[in-house]
Amino acid sequence: MNNFSSLVFDCDGVILNSNKIKTKAFYDVAKIYGHNPAQALKDYHVKNGGISRYAKFEYLLTYILGKSLDQDELKSLLDQFSEEVKKALLICDIAPGIKEFRAQTQHANWLIVSGGDQGELREVFAARGLDSYFDGGIFGSPDDKDTILATELKNQNITQPALFLGDSKYDYQAAKTAGLDFTFLTDWTEVTDWQSWVNENNLKNCRNLTDLEFYEK
């Protein structure tokens, strides 16, 4: 870990055990349209982990339901989703070993780059005493991960060599596009075929941050 100047973390499934919370919330919010559309959104969410809620609810309205995009309807769905999720984020499990791992990597700049809502993330991380770990900032939607990574690299807030720690296929693609090293964390991932996918792409993988203490070994 001494080789990396910047460490970039996804949030859900990496720092917080919140993947299942959000998966349930997508279904619960969409069930006003019936079981089948809600299940379709849930499936789309799991398949596209790491992509913002804005894009997913737009997909629900325009593709699953076949409606014209109504900004008021979209905002209502997003507000309901945020209200349901925020309560759970304040009490869900935090990644084991995060305090120790931060102490071991004091030389590195830490950032959150998440598909979650940026304002919500910052509020939750402050409430849970996690914000101080991320001296490089906490970033999320509506900007997508590709945009955030490109911006922070351009601003030299992320400096190479840099490592992205994620739990979704999109995390890997975003890291690859930005030219960051990547390690896949398995403990809380919702990628059902992660073992074969990791092998196919020859990716480093660890269970959680506690494993990363021994990364060099």
From the structure above, extract its key features.
single chain; 48% helix; 217 residues; Rossmann fold
Structural description of this entry:
The protein is α/β, with parallel strands linked by helices and 217 residues long. It folds into two domains: 131 residues, Rossmann fold, CATH 3.40.50.1000; 71 residues. It contains ten helices and six strands. Helix 1 runs antiparallel to helix 2, helix 2 packs across helix 3 and helix 7 packs parallel to helix 8.
Write the layout of secondary structure elements.
Layout lengths: L5 E4 L9 H12 L4 H13 L5 H12 L6 H19 L8 H7 L4 E9 H10 L9 E5 L3 H10 L7 E5 L2 H10 L2 E5 L8 H7 L3 E3 L2 H4 L5
Helix pairs in contact: 1-2, 1-4, 2-3, 7-8
Condensed summary:
The protein is of the alpha/beta class. The protein has 10 helices and 6 strands; from the N terminus they run E-H-H-H-H-H-E-H-E-H-E-H-E-H-E-H.
